[in-house]
Design brief:
By secondary structure, this protein is of the alpha/beta class. It has a single domain, classed as Rossmann fold, CATH 3.40.50. The protein has four helices and five strands; from the N terminus they run βαβαβαβαβ.
């Protein structure tokens, strides 16, 4: 069974739930995904949650960046999601990890990492999501 880590904004829990169901239907083992953290416990819980998330990227077959539209920006990618994608790419390029890096959609030019994402797509280091359920 292939393993997947879903990255993206934890503020989009409705979309996270949708992608959990999609990857379950595709028979993936879901190692990790964006989780909402209770505001009052954020500083206490975040370090372990983030560390575990990065560890799971080192164990996965696919890192899927769920870059749904957010804040009126098409294909939104926040700084943390970009860092997670870069961490996955580092695993691939430096350690020759056989990891598939997939993003849902091309980001808007309003996204800070727009140029890098487009370069990585052109180089074939990452690819756009293709829905194989049809």
């Amino acid at each position: 069974m292939k393993k997947v880590v879903i990255a993206g904004s934890a503020k989009l829990q409705k979309e996270v739930d949708k992608w959990l169901k999609i990857f379950e239907s595709l028979n993936y083992e879901i190692l990790d995904y964006p989780r909402a953290i209770q505001e009052s416990k954020f500083m206490e819980l975040y370090p372990n949650i983030h560390t575990e998330f990065l560890e799971n990227i080192t164990k996965t077959d696919m890192l899927f960046l769920m870059n749904e539209d957010k804040n009126d920006i098409v294909g939104y990618i926040g700084y943390e999601a970009y860092a997670e994608l870069l961490f996955g790419l580092s695993q691939k390029l430096i350690y020759n990890k056989n990891i598939e890096l997939v993003i849902l959609k091309s980001p808007s030019q309003d996204v800070g990492c727009y140029e890098e994402i487009n370069l990585w797509l052109k180089l074939g280091w990452i690819k756009l999501f293709k829905d194989d359920r049809k």
